Amino acid sequence: MIYLLVFLAASVFILIISLLFHNLSKLEIKNLSKRCVFITGCDTGFGNLLARTLDAKGVLVVAGCLTEKGARELKNQTSSRLKTVIVDVTDQSSVKKACEFTCEQTRDIGIWGVVNNAGIMPSYAPAEWTTLEEYERACKVNLFGTISVTLAFLPYLRQSQGRLVNVCSVTSNCGYPGISDYVVSKAGIKMFTSCLRRELLHTGVTAHTIEPGGFKTNITDKHRLFDILYKAYLRAQPDAQKCYGGNISRYLIGGIYNTAKYVSTNPQKVADAMTHALLAKYPNNRYLIGMDAHLFFRMLAALPERISDLIIGWNAPYGPLCQELKEGKMNF
Question: At 245, phi and psi to the nearest 5?
């Protein structure tokens, strides 16, 4: 009987604590109309959704877009309060101009938040089919672009005691094969953010990571992924073609089919997580988003490395060339 009472008491205690944390997590900071957030990568995808979400809440948004077309389309979807600026995160002078423009727009209220969202995934192929230029490109945009924007805006975040939000990926926790250039760059973002969070611990500035699983965006487009894989195969050395063109490529193409079927079609979840990191009174340090992030990747992180290797490690190489590479197309 006593064990049952202890169990019930513990259950009630856990329930109360859970409800308390749930309610606290919903609390938002005040004066949203006096908060300004700068976001990169707003032409499409998560950044575009975030810009529209914050604008609807009354936040002053400065949306960094790569193209005039992206900026124009975003303006047409938002209020006159939202401002756009063309920024290439790989160009320090462009980043500096975007920072100066944002400061001009927020002279009276300061800069509350910066979101490093701009990102690319240049390759979907074995490392031996991936060029050094693709590794450099991924790191230049994803990692060094994030660092460049952060360093430019950090003095202003310290003034406002605001928030830095960096978008990495659930794969930043896991050496996921086939996208090594992307994983390397995103893991760098995660470690950079962790270092910065500890350096800024007593300045009032907080740093947060957004770690989405698979979501339907331009990056996960099935036609784009196959096109990347096929081009990588064509330019690979003959011995590398033979090694990876059979069993391994069938595995990778199976991943494209599965991505087309099973990735989340609700990217608003990611924008909502970013919004929480920026506006919640008690934000989280990191946000894992998506069913795969919480179930599959959490499991991988908890398992010994050797077990994880067996789960996501590739099949034995070689085997006959897969049909899709032979024909140069996929049947979706």
Answer: -80, -10
- Active-site residue numbers? 182
Residue 194: burial class (beta carbons within 10 Å; 0-12, 13-18, 19+): middle
Could you tell me what percentage of the chain is helix, strand and coil, using 3-state DSSP and rounding each to the nearest 5?
60, 10, 30
**Residues 154, 148 contacting (CB under 8 angstroms):** no
Kindly report, residue by residue over 246-279, the tens digit of the pLDDT.
999 999 999 999 888 888 999 999 999 999 999 9
* CA dihedral for 175, 179, 180, 183, sign (positive or negative): negative
**Report field, pTM of the whole predicted structure over 0.70:** yes
Q: Where are the beta strands (DSSP E) in the chain?
A: 36-39, 60-65, 83-86, 113-116, 163-167, 206-212, 286-289
Please state, in angstroms and as integers, the Cα–Cα distance from residue 330 to each residue in 84, 236, 287, following that order.
Answer: 38, 20, 34
What are 49-77's pLDDT values in tens digits?
Answer: 999 999 999 999 999 999 999 999 999 99
Encoded tokens for 189: 């973002």
In order, the DSSP letters of 218-259 are STT-HHHHHHHHHHHHHHS-HHHHHHHTTHHHHHHHHHHHHH
Do residues 141 and 120 lie in contact, with contact meaning Cβ atoms separated by under 8 Å?
yes
